[in-house]
Write a structure and sequence with these properties.
Oligomer: single chain
Number of domains: 1
Helix content: under 10%
Distance between the termini: 18 Å
CATH topology: Rieske Iron-sulfur Protein
Strand order of the largest sheet: 2-3-4-8
Bound molecules: FE2/S2 (inorganic) cluster
Strand content: 35-45%
Length: 107
């Protein structure tokens, strides 16, 4: 596990989603009612960027086939996508957003 300094908190406006890349991970960052969240930026149905989707309340809608995911838990909430989005721990330090990524072993 490692915490990564990703960006300043002001880069993610309230009610917005921002796509970033941390190492080999494509991550979507969200700010919902002042709380930051991070999920995989890749839809579990097919290839689409959640950061191109539509954030409404605490759910993100995929821009391609409109699968709905609960941002805080990653839970899939529509019939289109069955698998949840991976979620990542987020913390704020000195106005910087930090995301914890599990390092995967290289073969
Ligand atoms: S690619 Fe996201 S719902 Fe199909």
């Amino acid at each position: 596990m490692a915490w990564h300094d990703v960006t300043e908190t002001s880069a993610v406006a309230e009610g917005q989603v921002l796509g970033v890349t941390i190492g080999e991970e494509m991550i979507a960052l969200y700010r919902i009612e002042g709380v930051f969240y991070a999920t995989s930026n890749i839809c579990t149905h097919a290839f689409a960027l959640m950061s191109d989707g539509y954030l409404e309340d605490d759910c993100i809608e995929c821009p391609v086939h409109q699968a709905l995911f609960h941002v805080p838990t990653g839970e899939a909430r529509s019939r289109i996508a069955k698998r949840p989005l991976k979620t990542y721990p987020v913390k704020v330090e000195n106005d910087r957003l930090m995301v914890e990524i599990t390092e995967t072993a290289k073969v």
